Amino acid sequence: MASAADGEEAGSDQVKEAATVYQERALIPLVEDVSEWLTRLVGKTILPEEFMSSLDDGVVLCQLIQVIQAKQNNPLKEKVKYNSKAAKGGWHARDNAAHSSCGASILE
């Protein structure tokens, strides 16, 4: 026998699911814009439907930091180094993410 609490819980789950779907749909235009922007900046095609997975290995993030550093024209800044052949989820990918984070922290 289903209780009132079960009904409320099911309703709550439906509300949460609807909110998640709404949020994901609302992000689509933003992901499209950022994908296009990154493609222009780093010269590597980043498809909106593969946006998050294209960032997994940290290569695009490091390339972005290098583009920003180049536009700063500051010869004293050390160029961000990265492994362009890093496997997603591997050691080099985590290393790339750390390098991009450090690179971002020294940008003026």
Automatic annotation (TrEMBL):
Coiled coil (UniProt feature): none
GO biological process entries: actin crosslink formation
Protein name from the UniProt record: GAS2L3
Domain of life: Eukaryota
Domain Calponin-homology (CH) stretches: 32-81
Cellular component GO terms held in the UniProt record: actin filament
Gene Ontology molecular function, alphabetical: actin filament binding; cytoskeletal anchor activity
